[in-house]
Amino acid sequence: MKNYILCFLFLLVSLSVFAQKQWTLSECLRYATDNNLELKKKALEINLSKADKTQSYFEMVPTAVAGGSYALVNGLDYNYNAGMYENARVANGQLSLSGEVTLFHGFALVNDVRAAHYDYERAKADLAVEQKNISIRIMVKYIDVLFKRDLYTASKQQTEISQQQKIKGEEIYSLGGISNAEFLELKAQFARSLADEVSYKNQYQLNLLELAQFLDIADAQSFEVASPNLTDSSLSAILPDLAALDANSRGQFPEIKSASNQVRVKEMNYYAAIGRLTPRFYAGYNYNTWFADNGIDANKANNDPTRMYPSYSYRDQIDANLRKTIYVGVSIPILNKYSAQTARTKSKISLKYAEHSYEQVENSVTKELTSTFLETTGAWSNFQAATEKFDATSASWEAAKEKFELGGISSIDLGIARKNQFEAETNLINSKYNFILRKKILDYYMGEPLSL
C-alpha cells in the first residue's frame, strides 16, 4: 500500500512539473522546425526535386528493352521456314533485346540536367524561406505574449494600488476627511482598475493560446512561456551602418537565392528548348530471334538438313535464327506542328518573367532592410522618450499620493495622476517590446540566431 501511495505522489509531482514547463523562444523555434506541417511539405518538395534531378541524369543513359512472346496459332499462319502461309496448329515464340542512346541533340539533355540541379537548389532555398518566415512569426507572437503579460502584470499592480487607495479613502471618509462623492470616486477607480486587469488578462491568455495553436501544441491549455532577462537597463541601440547592413545581410534572405536559382532554371530550359530545334543524332542496337514447333533446320552444314522440331529444339532455333542490328541515325525536325518553336518562345518568356521576379525580390529585400533599420532607430527613440515620460509621471504620481493623504488634492486629481502614470507605464512597455522586436529582426538579418 505504501508503494502505491509513493507512485501516486510521484505521478502527481511529474504532472505538476510538466504542466509548469515554460517554453523559451529557442524551444518554440526548435519545436516548429520539427513539427510544422508547412516545413514538412517543403521538405517533401525537396525530395521531389531531387528525384527529378536524378532522373535527368538517367535521360542520357542508353535505353534497354527486353521482350518475348509465346503463342498458340490454330489456322492460317506464316511459316518462316517454308516462306509461305500454312493452315496448321503451331506453337511459336519471339525474343528480342533493343536499345537506343542520343549522341547529340544540341546539348538539350545536358541543359535539362542543369535545370534540374538548379530546381533542386531552389527547392532547398524555398524551405529556408519558409523556415525564416515561420521563425520570425513565432518570435513576433512570442514577444507579443511577453508584451501582453507585462501589461497584465502592470494592471494587477494598478489594481492593488487602487485597492489600497480605496481602503485608505474609506478610513479617511469614516473620519470625515473626504466627502462621500470623493469616496465613491475611489471605489469607481478601483472598479475600473479591476476591469482593466480582467481585460489585459484575457488579452494575454488569448495571445498565449494563439502561439500554442500556431506551434500545433496538443496541450495548449498548459502552455506557458519563459521570462527572459529583458530589463530596461540591458537594452541598447548599437546598430550597424545602413550600407553595411545592406551589404552583409543579403545572405540571410533565402528569397534571393530561391529567385536566383529560378532564373537559372528558366535559362537552362530556354537553352534546352533551342537544342531541341537542332537535329538529333542517335545510335541503337537490336537483337531478335524466333522459334516454332514447325521449325526446320535449313543449315546445309548439318548432316540432316531436314531436321525438325523436337530434334531441332527451341534452343537450337533461337541460336540459328538470331539477328543482330546496330545502327546510327539522325532525326531532323522539319514540321512538328510548331511545337518546338512554341516551346522555345514560351521558355524565353518564362526566363524574362523569372528575371523580373528576381529584380522584385532584390528591391523587396532592400526595402525590408531599410524599413527595418529605420523602424529600429525610431523604436529606440520612442523607448527613450517613453522612459523619460514614465519617470516623470511616476514622480508626479508619488507626489499626488502624498498630497491626497494630506488632503491637498481630491480623489479625482489622484485618479488622474494614477491614470497618467499607468498610461505612461503601458506606453513604456509597448515601446520596449517594439524596440526589442525590431532589434532582434535586425540582428537576425545580420546573421545572429533568433533568441531572447
Can you give a write-up of this model?
The protein is α+β, with helices and mostly antiparallel strands and 452 residues long. It has two domains: 23-61 and 106-278 and 339-445, Outer membrane efflux proteins (OEP); 63-104 and 279-332, Single Sheet (Outer membrane efflux proteins (OEP)), CATH 2.20.200. The chain has ten helices and four strands, in the order αααββααααβαβαα. Strands 1-2-3-4 form a four-stranded antiparallel beta sheet. A hairpin with a 4-residue loop joins strand 1 (65-79) and strand 2 (84-104). The two termini are 48 Å apart. Residues 4-19 have low confidence and may be disordered.
Number of helices: 10
What pattern of helices and strands is seen along the backbone?
HHHEEHHHHEHEHH
Strand order of the largest sheet: 1-2-3-4
What's the main sheet like?
4 strands, antiparallel
* Low-confidence sequence ranges: 4-19
Extended strand count: 4
Helix and strand composition category:
alpha+beta
Q: For the residues shown, what is the average pLDDT?
A: 86
Kindly report the CATH topology of the largest domain.
Outer membrane efflux proteins (OEP)
- Would you identify the CATH architecture of the largest domain? Up-down Bundle
Head-to-tail CA distance between termini: 48 Å
Number of domains: 2
Work out the strand percent.
5-15%
Estimate the global geometry from the Cα principal axes: elongated
Instruction: Indicate the CATH class of the largest domain.
Output: Mainly Alpha
Q: Superfamily at the CATH H level of the largest domain?
A: Outer membrane efflux proteins (OEP)
Helix content: 55-70%
Radius of gyration: 41 Å
